[in-house]
Amino acid sequence: MSHEAATPAAAPGHDDHGAHPHVNYFAIFIALCICTGLSILFDLIKSESLRWVIVFLVLSVAVAKALFVLTYFMHLKFEGNWKFIILLPTTILAIGLMVALTPDIGLHYYTPDVPQVNQPAPVPAPAAEHKPGH
Amino acid sequence: MGIPISRAKLGMWLFLGTEIMFFTAFIGTYIVCFFGSPGWPTDTRETHINIAAGGINTFVLILSSYFVVVAHEAMGLRNFSRARQFLVYTMVLAFVFLGIKSYEYNGKFSHNILPGRIAEDDFQAMDNTVRAMQKAVENALDTLVPGDAKPHEKQTALNTELSAIQKDRETAKSEAKEAAAKASAAPSDADAKAAATAKADAFAKIADETPRERLLRAWLGWNEEFSRLRTEVSGNKLTLEQVKSRLGTHHNHDLGIKSEYEETIIVDTNTPVLKSADGRDLSHIAGRLVDEKDLAAFKASPRQAFTVLAHTGERITIAADNIVAATMPAGVIDLAHQIHEPFVMPYGNLFASCYFLMTAFHAIHVLVGMTLFTVLLMQGSRLNEKWSDFMENAGLYWHFVDLVWIFLFPLLYILPGLMRAS
Questions:
Q1: What residue in B sits closest to A1 (Cα-Cα)?
Q2: If both were cysteines, with which of A16, B221, B332, B381 could B264 make a disulfide (CB 3.0 to 4.6 Å apart)?
């Protein structure tokens, strides 16, 4: 048991700050801004062949931003290994939910048979009706 | 207890762990639904997804996260006034975020991009149009005849008013005639002649169509047209394309004479009202001018004969005598513009559900974060190191809110558009 946990009431808060080395938060902020700019820049590239590369890049930028925020703004860099005990199970459960949903909703083993998909077939017009001349 | 952090922080991190699962449940379900629904709406013109607004909001949240971290750092250095200052900046940015969010929401509300309201096939789209027409006609009736009476009672009142106006005009006309006759019958008495002429002028003025009367007539015209369209739609007589083209003719201001039903419709101030002078039904004419030249000619001299292309393919020349063209006065009711063009958006309702579930829960989190900061700011100058734990936890929570948006922005705003063609 560390001294911090032993005396949480006696010295609230200030012990954490003593443990953190100084971080240049402004540099992190600039990095986050550049990342946001990059993801918008990727959106402007209209390339059919590079589509999946761009999707990958946009997601990577999002992950990078998330890591910046978690590591520096939320101080996870300076925390003990307890962070993995808390964050790993939730991450596994979150991914598990997607995996569990995918076979039923995400994949179509059978031909999809929902009204929206059948929609493109035109509605038969009654014989008496004429389309206005174009 | 083997974890070397304060209980408050441990509690916060455990809570954030559940929050991660909470949001990834939504985000994960959205991703799975996206890939499981061929034809998921991705066109931002349809979904009214505003990438610029989303991008600005991303920046706003990142900046606010930075301010929170500065405030927290200042607390650690016991510089409490600086901490308060940056908390105020954070609050301002939170309000900016919510403001932009409500602007985006408003764009969706006004176009009925709402779960359960989006047409996913042609019939639903036509249903929506019928409902919108009903609403537009009733709203216009409410402004013309205020009060709590039922629509059919109001319509009766409107008809009564209109016939009263017409009757008054008939009376005025005959009195004006009498006065004019008097004026010419008494040529010797100059004063009496002047008085009679003035009276005749006054009556003649009344005899003109009043603005009120035009409004009432316009409403009747809209009501007639919309009722006809409604009846045909509910009778399954029209396809979505036909409904669109029927509405489109009213939307297009430049082509005043275009549709089959123009004679009952007043489109706007610049558009001639087309009527057959003898009240003949012109509905067999697929009102479309043959070419631009005809339109120009018609505009130059509305009383000229012009050619229309009937929907049978036949060209019909309408003699000038059969046309009454007039320009509508200002203040006329234009109901066509209150009706959005019907659209079909497969999986639109699922999309709207996902969008609102994720962004609204995120907005609720923003509100909670603002509450935490308000508690800190309410301490005023009493803010001291005792609030450090509170500040740290509020900060962690706020960074998490930022984190969620960091994922929502690409997933909701950017990626669907990129995947469109796939």
A1: B2
A2: B221
Tell which residue, B284, B343, B341, B347, has the closest CA to residue B316. Answer: B284
* DSSP letter for each residue of A92-103: HHHHHHHHHHII
User: Under an 8 A CB cutoff, do B242 and A115 touch?
Assistant: no
Choose the mutation target among B260, B415, B420, B422 for the interface with A, i.e. most A CBs under 10 Å: B415
- CB contacts, 8 Å: A73 with chain B: 65-66, 68-69, 395, 399, 402
Chain-chain contact of B36 with A108 (C-beta, under 8 angstroms): yes
Residues B94 and B371: beta-carbon distance below 8 Å: no
Q: Is B157 on the interface with A (CB under 8 A)?
A: no
Establish if A39 touches chain B: CB-CB under 8 angstroms.
yes
Question: Chain-centre distance of CA A88, in angstroms?
Answer: 16
List chain B residues with CB under 8 Å of A48.
Answer: 421
- pLDDT score of B28: 93
B172-178 long-range contacts, Cβ below 8 Å, gap at least 24? Answer: B172/B203, B172/B204, B172/B206, B172/B207, B173/B203, B173/B207, B175/B199, B175/B203, B176/B200, B176/B203, B176/B204, B176/B206, B176/B207
Q: Tell me the shortest Cα–Cα distance from A94 to chain B, in angstroms.
A: 5
What is the predicted ipTM? 0.74
What is the C-alpha separation between A11 and A9, in angstroms, rounded? 6
Contact status, residue B76 vs residue B399, Cβ threshold 8 Å:
no
Average pLDDT over residues A67-71: 93
CA of A37: which chain B residue's CA is closest? B55
Q: Which of A5, A12, A13 sits opposite B4 (nearest CB)?
A: A5
Q: How far apart are CA B239 and CA B73, in angstroms?
A: 65
pTM for the full predicted model? 0.72
d(CA B24, CA B44): 24
Structure tokens at B323: 């046309």
Share the mean pLDDT of chain A. Answer: 75
Name the least confident of A114-128, B78-92, B228-242.
A114-128
**How many beta carbons lie within 10 A of that of residue B14, not counting itself?**
12
Residue for token digits 């509605």? A123
